[in-house]
Amino acid sequence: MDWQELGLTAARGLLVYVVMLVVIRLLGKRTVGNFTAFDLLVALMLGEVVDEIIYGDVTIAQGMVAIGVVALAKYLTSWLTYFDHGMNKVLEGAPREVIRHGELLRDALRAEILNEQEVHAALRLHGIEDMKEVKSATMEVDGEISVILEDWAEPLKKREVMGEAG
Amino acid sequence: MELWRIVVRALAAYVYLLVMTRMSGKRVVGEATPFDFVVALIVGDVIDDALWAEVSMAKFAGACGSLFLCDIITKLVAFHSRPFFLLVHGRPRVILRNGAADGRGLRAEQLTEGDLAHLLRLEGVDDWRDVRVAMLEEDHGLSVLKCDGAEPVQKKDAPRVRKMLRWRAS
Q: For the whole model, what pTM was predicted?
């Protein structure tokens, strides 16, 4: 066992930890709450790049360049999607309506490669059993299905029962 | 190895993966099944060898390409064939019915009644009798379908509620 090598590995591990912390904080915010498939891949890419740095299989300079390029590319694409909505559509895709007024939109389902059982499962997760209650369901860019209820199926608000006085 | 080569390789890999994810559909995270996750991990694992030029970029493109292709084919076949869909995704399993825990469903999902109580609390359910059916969906979310009496009052019920209130008041 070479103690010096062990110490170096520990030092490199520490360095990588700090660098990743900074990188994730710089990219941060936007990826939380809108975590798309590609965000996951970028996170994995960064995670895979660092192990060779820690073990010293590549030099620190090489590792930092690789992390820097991936992080910068991610930053640029995020920036582009923020300022240019056309770019947003290309890079992240557009949301697509899959149910309208209780009817499945077959073309949309085919385009999303989403079958009926998956839509029913998504509705169940929203606590909805009867599709007629759905005014509009949309496949969002992060893969979540959002649901808007028909007016009559919305929960009753207090003011609607108590009259204007209530 | 020269540093600028890493820059070129990293950029190429980044753009390639971006295109691939977009083409494979955008659902990997939102409805990530364990298998989607495994695919993502493999792709992430393949990329670093390409960055350090341990494998050629062509090999990297081929490896990722074939994984994404398998992913797309699986999705397409599951879309058209229900048996295959069930094979890949599994079946949603009932773990609570008419207010009582379904012991067999719980065992099959390796959940205790305590886990079930936890999942129901997250859905805001306190009294289990309010629940007609609770199912564990393939993405491991719990769906709760309440019995009619426990559903919130809907707008379509407004006239009846108003009538009832008037009757109470008089």
A: 0.73
